[in-house]
Write a structure and sequence with these properties.
- Pfam families: HNH.
- The chain is of the alpha+beta class.
- The protein has one domain.
- About 25% of the residues lie in helices and about 10% in strands.
- A two-stranded antiparallel ribbon has the order 1-2.
- The longest helix is centred in the middle third of the chain and has 12 residues.
- The structure holds zinc ion (ZN).
Length: about 80
């Protein structure tokens, strides 16, 4: 999954720390672990994206599903 090493926000280029679900897992829990339904973000872009799409700005209480594990992959590049 080499495409997942950096944030998907155009012009950002930071290492991936968070993964966003393109189809909400509330609606499509079966796609929770499907790569095609995941989009890589750095933490700051993911917070912005989540605030926009889910209507809360702080990100307080939000636990990124894959945080940490993908960051380790990026460190080896
Ligand atoms: Zn970013």
């Amino acid at each position: 999954m080499l495409a997942f090493l950096t944030c998907s926000t155009e012009g950002c280029g930071k290492p991936t720390t968070d993964v966003d679900h393109i189809q909400s897992i509330r609606e499509r829990s079966d796609l929770r672990l499907v790569w095609a339904n995941l989009r890589p973000f750095c933490h700051s872009c993911h917070s912005r994206h989540t605030a926009r799409t889910q209507g809360f700005a702080s990100g307080r209480g939000y636990e990124p599903t894959f945080r940490g594990s993908l960051g380790t992959v990026g460190a080896n590049a």
